[in-house]
Every structure is written in structure tokens, then in C-alpha cells.
Design brief:
It is a single chain. By secondary structure, this protein is of the alpha+beta class. It folds into 2 domains: 75 residues, Pleckstrin-homology domain (PH domain)/Phosphotyrosine-binding domain (PTB) (PH-domain like, Roll); 120 residues, Rossmann fold (3-Layer(aba) Sandwich), CATH 3.40.50.150. Strand 1 and strand 2 form a beta hairpin. The protein is elongated.
Length: 206
Amino acid sequence: MGLEAECALRHERKVVRGRALLESTELLFRGDVRLRIPLNKVTAIEVRGDDLRVVWPEGAATFTLGAAAETWARKMRAPRSLMDKLGVKPGSRVSAITVRDEAILRDLRERTPTVTEGKAAEGSDIVLTFMQARSGLGSLVKLRAAIRENGSIWVFWPKGRKELREDDIRAAALRAGLVDVKVASVSEAWSGLKLVIPVAQRSAKT
């Protein structure tokens, strides 16, 4: 979802200020108090004026978000699916490389009949690849050659690991002739960076 805001938080009889972040699978707060609320455990969402109140089995928290409170509530009630977030449309030609998550593979097959697993098919609209170390970044050159000029590569990497960071992927992408245009939370354990061929390097017909 990618929403974030500086706000006040009321939680366990304390009021603190910090930054709230709404991801696809969780609501986070970072400040003097750190809070993580899995969206699949939320039992109630209520907007009262400028406040967003969220209830889950471990407690309740109120975020003072001003006019944005209703927008946050709406997105929490009807989150976008992972396939929507990745831009997978019916008929998209998708290559799933090193994707071991059966739920993701199932959702891919349900969304589009043209899924290639284990390799990058020529003319792919989207390539999905999970990486866990910098050593895998050299494959971006070959993956760039496999996608259509207006296609994309999603590189997924483990959250909070030093072996591979977002900046490592971004630097390797530039060396491979790619630029990053979007970052997304894929799950509680994985983040994703969307890479594309720079517009200036595409032919006029695309």
C-alpha cells in the first residue's frame, strides 16, 4: 500500500509521536514506541474524526492521521492483492525464477495462463526472482535481455538481512542498464524492488 505519515499514537495509556507505515501485510509505528500490527489479525477498524482506531487480539491503538484517516481505513479494509501490486494482469507473460512460495505460484497461475517457471522466457512482461545474496545480482543482465522493452523485473530479498540490501540491488540494476521505480512489501519476510529499462533506452514504438 505504501502509505506513511508522521502522527501521534495512543497505545497502552501512552501518547507518543512517530511515523506510521501501512504495508500490504502490516501496520507499523516507529518512534519511542515500536508497534507492528499484522493486518490479518485486525478485528476492528474505526474512524473518529482525525483518528484511526485499530483493534487486534493483542490490544488497541489509535493513530491521529487527520484527513487521511478515512483513506488509511479504506485501504486496510480492502487491501490490494499481491498480483495487483506486482502489475500481473490476465494474459501477462510472467517468468517466475527461484520462486518457491506455492501461494505466489498459485496466484500467478490463477491470474494468467502464461507462466514460465525456473527460467526467464524471452519477451516476458514480468520476471519475478527471489535473491538472498549479492552473488545473484549478476543475473540482472540476462534478465534485462529477456523482458520486453516496457516490461519489468521484480527482485525480492529478505527483510533485515545484511547479505543483500535494497541499495545493493539498486546499484547492480544501474550497472545492468535498469532503474528502480517501485518498492513493495511482498510478505512479512520479503521486500520487492521493481526494475525497468529506462524510457530513454526504449524504441519509439513502445
